[in-house]
Design goal:
Blueprint lengths: L7 E5 L4 H12 L3 E5 L5 H8 L3 E3 L19 E5 L8 H8 L3 E4 H8 L4 E6 L4 H14 L4 E9 L4 E4 L6 E6 L13 E4 L13 H13 L6 E5 L9 E5 L8 E9 L2 E8 L2 E8 L4 H16 L4 H9 L9 E5 L4 E5 L4 H14 L5 E5 L4 H6 L1 H8 L4 E4 L15 H7 L5 E3 L5 H8 L3 E5 L8 H12 L1
Parallel strand pairs: 1-2, 1-4, 2-3, 4-5, 6-9, 6-10, 7-9, 10-11, 11-12, 17-21, 18-19, 18-21, 19-20
Antiparallel strand pairs: 7-8, 13-14, 14-15, 16-17
Helix pairs in contact: 5-7, 5-8, 9-11, 13-14
EC number: 6.3.2.8
Keywords: ATP-binding, Cell cycle, Cell division, Cell shape, Cell wall biogenesis/degradation, Cytoplasm, Ligase, Membrane, Nucleotide-binding, Peptidoglycan synthesis, Transmembrane, Transmembrane helix
Subcellular location: Cytoplasm
Length: 459
């Protein structure tokens, strides 16, 4: 695939966070960029303002008008595996001779000539990737980065440097996409069962991660969370939040005036003290392995410390929208039981005496079915549970699986199923001390209405 000869690119599913990063790359390279997405979002609005033509129907007769005038030989169509096989627009493009490739194939081609730093795992990929990219950028090391979220230090999900030696990428396990990569350095944060609509079982998923680990260059290294039973052909470095058997971990972790303070221990040596304002033990663990990557690249300790201290976070990852003594509102992308437990645990650590009200929008019928008991147990750590209807994304409904089914599994007295149109009124009635919204669907569209209503109530 010779990308230099490509003049125009059409993205089927351009509003996805990973797809939009690549769309921005091609736009920066001077290509004509077009796309389709199912819904209009703040992200697609930003892409349109950057000069990309986007349509919101899969009707082949309503493809981006200027796109149909582009020569087929110099045009590339990129799609995400989340697009259903029945998608009419994608079918039309295939039938008419367009070159159609998956996002993972294009990403692999884009970063082919750079040393790839790939962050894989069922949890923590986006934050860890953003941390690594920030450390490199802050330390003066030129890199490209393709992220699964909007990094607040860059206000973007893509970083582009024409002379970049490294590429930081979020290695997505969905549809085994990460197996297209050939990493120089890699991180594996977790291998909890997920995407069982793709992987038949947890063993199949574990095997895919083992294959990914084996692809890391023998000139590089792979950082694997302690307790994960994966081998590696490259140098293997284990890491943890506080497991002293790991090669790399945090020690003397405590909070000072809202800042996490900890020492970094690497191969039994105390490297020094680090401070992070980014909340949550899980994010300190993410910082530990990002620091490991920096050490492997030979970055000076002082620059590493300063980079962690100045890391601003990622949009929708423990993101504060209200932070006052009498009211707190946090939004998070958590959509798996392990992520919910980590998120709620962090909130309880920061606000131990407050009543915590959680609003959760389940994502996918299959994930809700597969992890129903796990979701219930993780939600029970909240003082009050509010469930929204399941966000279907790419799926059709599964008989018997809905939010009421999940709510019945939650052994909490203060629980309720609320329709979207009634959510703001219900939250105002509950009058939460700490409000936590969670989910990977479109719950983020409720952030501004909730924030405005709570602020108005508090005036």
């Amino acid at each position: 695939m010779n990308l230099e000869k490509i003049h125009s690119v059409y993205f089927v599913g351009i509003g996805g966070i990973g797809m939009s990063a690549i769309a921005r790359y091609f736009k920066a390279m001077g290509k004509n960029v077009f796309g389709y997405d199912r819904v209009h979002t703040a992200l697609t609005a930003n892409l349109e303002s950057e000069g990309m033509q986007i349509v919101y129907t899969d009707n082949p007769e309503e493809l981006a008008p200027d796109f149909l005038n582009q020569p087929i030989d110099n045009t590339l169509v990129v799609y995400t595996p989340a697009i259903p096989v029945t998608h009419a627009g994608l079918g039309y493009l295939r039938q008419h001779g367009y070159r159609v490739v998956k996002r993972s194939e294009v990403l692999s081609e884009i970063i082919e000539k750079q040393k790839t730093i790939a962050i894989a795992g069922t949890h923590g990929k986006t934050t860890t990737s953003a941390m690594v990219a920030h450390i490199l950028n802050h330390s003066g090391i030129k890199c490209n980065a393709f992220l699964g979220g909007i990094a607040l230090n860059f206000n973007s999900n893509v970083i582009l440097n024409p002379d970049a030696e490294y590429a930081v990428v979020e290695a997505d396990e969905y549809d085994r996409s990460f197996l297209k990569l050939n990493p120089f350095l890699a991180i594996i944060t977790s291998v909890d069962a997920d995407h069982l609509d793709i992987y038949d079982n947890a063993d199949a998923m574990h095997n895919a991660f083992q294959e990914f680990a084996n692809k890391v260059s023998d000139q590089g290294a792979v950082f694997i969370h302690s307790g994960i039973s994966l081998s590696a052909k490259a140098k293997k470095i284990t890491y943890s939040l506080d497991d002293k058997k790991a090669d790399l971990y945090a020690s003397s972790l405590h909070i000072e005036n809202g800042t996490y303070v900890f020492d970094v221990i690497f191969q039994s040596k105390n490297l020094g003290t680090v401070r992070s304002t980014y909340p949550g033990h899980h994010n300190i663990e993410n910082a530990i392995t990002a620091i490991g990557i920096a050490l492997e690249l030979g970055i000076e300790w002082g620059k590493i410390v300063d980079s962690i201290a100045t890391f601003a976070g990622v949009k929708r990852r423990f993101e504060y929208h209200i932070k006052r003594n009498d009211r707190v509102f946090i939004d998070d992308y958590a959509h798996h039981p392990t992520e919910i437990s980590a998120c709620v645990g962090s909130v309880k650590e920061l606000y131990p005496d407050s009543r915590i009200t959680g609003v959760f929008q389940p994502h996918l019928y299959s994930r809700t079915r597969d992890f129903g008991d796990g979701f219930a147990r993780s939600l029970e750590a909240l003082n009050e549970v509010v469930l929204m209807e399941i966000y279907p994304a790419r799926e059709e409904p599964i008989p018997g699986i809905d939010s009421e089914w999940l709510l019945n599994k939650v052994r909490t007295v203060n629980k309720k199923l609320v329709q979207r149109e009634n959510l703001v009124d219900e939250i105002l009635r509950l009058d939460p001390e700490v409000l936590l919204t969670m989910g990977a669907g479109d719950i983020d569209k409720m952030i501004e209405p909730l924030k405005s209503a709570l602020n108005e109530k508090d005036e």
